[in-house]
Each structure stands twice: as C-alpha cells, then as structure tokens.
Amino acid sequence: MDQLPDAAPLATKLRNTLVQYHSIPDSEWRVAKRTKDATVWRKPSEEFSGYLYKAQGVVEDVTNRIVDHIRPGPYRLDWDSLMTAMDIMETFEENCCVMRYTTAGQLWNIIAPREFVDFSYTTSYEDGLLTCGISLDYGEVRPNFVRGFNHPCGWFCIPLKDYPSHSLLTGYIQTELRGMLPQSAVDTAMSSTLANFYSDLKKALKT
C-alpha cells in the first residue's frame, strides 16, 4: 500500500496531461460509437495497451451544475448506473480528494465488479471547468472486487458562447480494467458506457 502523493504537483501534472489530450488533432481519432446524445472516438493509449477514449456532446445546463454531478460528491451515485458505491477517503482541499468507488458488473457479468481508488481534481479551464482524475495504488483491495486502474482521465465542460445555458462536455477516459478479460469485450463496454453516461447525466439534470 503506497503513501498518498503530494496533491499539488500531482494535480498540476494531471491538468497538463488532460490539456494535452484536448489538443490532439481530429485526424488521430476514430469514431467508435454515435448516439443522439454523444459521439465517442478512440485512439491507442500511450499509457497502456488499450485505448484512450474521447466522448463529446452538448448538455442542456450550466457548467457548474454539470460538473457537480460528475465530480466526487453526493450527486454522482444518484444517477450513474455503473457506480455502486463511493466514499471519500481523503480531502486535501475543497476541489481535491481521494475517493474509492465500485462499479457494477457489465456485459452479462463477463466484466465482474471493479473497485478503483482515484485522486480527483477540479479546476477552472477557459470559461468553464475541468474535473480530472488518476488511479492510485492505495488502500486494501476489498474481497469480491478486481482493482481497476484509471490512467489520466477527465471532463472538460465549457459553456456554449451563443447559448450559455448549454455546455459542451468533452471527456477523455482510459481505464485499465485488469483481470482476465478479452480486449474486444472491454472495447464494446467502454464505448457503450460512455454513450450511456451522457443520456443518464441528461436525465439526472432534468429532475
């Protein structure tokens, strides 16, 4: 079990990595899935042997409210169907914490429930917000769960200039589920999970 990292340099490095992903040219991405709520692209990850996914869609709400539903906090468990439990293990400051959460089994339980311990950081970006995270090897792994690992991930939420009550939400996700899994099953699950994330979030914001 590792010690907790120093929060400030980790937060800075994480933010810089996400901004770098955000500037990857369109030509490097390949479409993985399109729905009425979002488009999902992917490209080979430079962090591990899987993919870096990019998801994007317009969400009808103000930036702060959207990000409050995504980042660690009371809203997330209410609407995110994939997340089954979450607790904040450490809080460094208001916008920076370590959380442990568990996810439901997927694809008829081909993908068993997973546990993650993530460092999470929320900061301003342009006219909006960026909430981002990375997994830590911290804390005991609970029985009945495989410990997954999120390489740098994050969500940029920027108000639309002409429609400030609408926001462009762009996510970058690269999750190493670990355990014995066929890569094709993981890829199918990731694209669908990201598309469903947008439809579930939109429903939650309307309630």
Topology:
Layout: H1 7-22, E1 30-34, E2 39-44, E3 51-59, H2 63-70, H3 74-79, E4 83-93, E5 96-103, E6 114-125, E7 128-135, E8 146-147, E9 149-150, E10 153-159, E11 167-173, E12 175-176, H4 183-206
Parallel strand pairs: 6-8
Antiparallel strand pairs: 1-2, 2-3, 3-11, 4-5, 5-6, 6-7, 7-10, 9-12, 10-11
Task: Output the CATH topology.
Answer: Alpha-D-Glucose-1,6-Bisphosphate, Chain A, domain 4
Strand % is: 35-45%
**What is the string of helix and strand elements?**
HEEEHHEEEEEEEEEH
Uncertain regions: pLDDT < 50 for 5+ in a row? none
Mean pLDDT: 92
Radius of gyration: 16 Å
Largest β-sheet summary: 10 strands, mixed
The percent of residues in helical segments reads 25-40%
Kindly, what is the distance between the CA atoms of the first and last residues, rounded to a whole number of angstroms?
A: 41 Å
Number of self-contained structural domains: 1
Principal-axis shape: globular
Structural class: alpha+beta
User: What is the annotated CATH architecture?
Assistant: 2-Layer Sandwich
CATH superfamily caption: START domain
Number of strands: 12
User: CATH top level?
Assistant: Alpha Beta
Protein name: STAR4 protein
Domain START: 10-207
Pfam family, one: START
GO molecular function: cholesterol binding; cholesterol transfer activity
